[in-house]
Design a protein that fits this description.
With about 240 residues, the protein is an alpha/beta fold. The chain folds into 2 domains: about 1-110, no CATH class; about 125-240, Rossmann fold (3-Layer(aba) Sandwich), CATH 3.40.50. The protein has 13 helices and 8 strands. Strands 2-1-3-4 form a 4-stranded parallel sheet, sandwiched between helices. β7, α12 (about 215-225) and β8 (about 235) form a beta-alpha-beta unit. The longest helix is centred in the last third of the chain and has 17 residues, at about 190-205.
Length: about 240
């Protein structure tokens, strides 16, 4: 199995430890991992702002960098969904189509391809799980609470395998944090209020850490936590699954 890791630009620039944890975790699980060194932004910020037509060069470069792999694994639900739904390349559309079908979010890959049932990770803390909208509603990593059907959560399944970790209950298990990419810039007040409400739910149940599969959402929550001088921290799920 030849697997490439796709590291979002904000992870590369602000949270490199998440990329490192993703690499180390996959290697611990016996995966041969490759990192295309010329990878850049996938173009999601332009597309989210209504300028998808300006992301053509990002698309072409992505296809150039990530062609020829069995799977492409990314520690970000939003970036994964963007590639899965929007990647096209006029010069090599068959390659783009192959990439759209093989790109996977990290927890999706661990559960659906590697079928992980055991982990050696150890993280003795009370943790709240934030299930981001793109991962939940776009990639179907977990069940939406408004649907009357059996519940499931791929991130929660993996966290339940971590020794010492206490996964806290939440009153609203799939509420948006308010980040929404450029939404947090265009609608700052609404975005912050949504973030405060999301944090309050976690704090009410005693979370020491808030985790999730999208560092962008966690970055938004981290900013609010810091301004509140809270001792609760954010941590990407890859860091927990790789802990110990």
């Amino acid at each position: 199995m030849k697997v490439a890791i796709f590291i979002p630009c904000y992870v590369d620039q602000f949270y490199p430890q998440v990329g490192i944890a993703t690499l180390e975790l996959l290697e611990k699980l016996g995966v041969s991992v490759f990192y295309p060194e010329k990878q850049t932004c996938c173009g999601q910020p332009m597309a989210n702002s209504g300028f998808e037509h300006l992301a053509t060069s990002c698309n072409d470069l992505f296809v150039e960098n990530f062609s020829g792999y069995d799977y492409i694994v990314c520690p970000s639900g939003s970036c994964t969904l963007h590639i899965k739904d929007h990647l096209h390349a006029s010069a090599n559309e068959p390659a783009a189509e192959k990439i759209r079908s093989t790109v996977m979010e990290l927890t999706e890959f661990l559960t659906d391809v590697l079928h992980i049932k055991n982990l050696t990770a150890h993280f003795p803390h009370k943790v709240g799980l934030h299930q981001s909208c793109h991962g939940q509603r776009g990639l179907h990593l977990s069940q939406m609470s408004e649907l009357v059907s059996p519940g499931f959560s791929k991130p929660q399944h993996l966290l339940n395998l971590v020794q010492g970790l206490e996964l806290i209950p939440l009153d609203r298990t799939d509420e948006c944090c308010g980040f929404g990419g450029t939404f947090c810039v265009a609608e700052e007040a609404v975005s912050v209020k949504m973030g405060k409400d999301r944090i309050a739910d976690h704090l009410h149940h005693g979370a020491e850490y808030i985790t999730g599969g999208d560092m962008s959402c966690l970055m938004h929550l981290e900013g609010i936590l810091r301004r509140q001088r809270s001792t609760t921290k954010v941590i990407h799920i890859a860091e927990i699954l790789n802990a110990g």
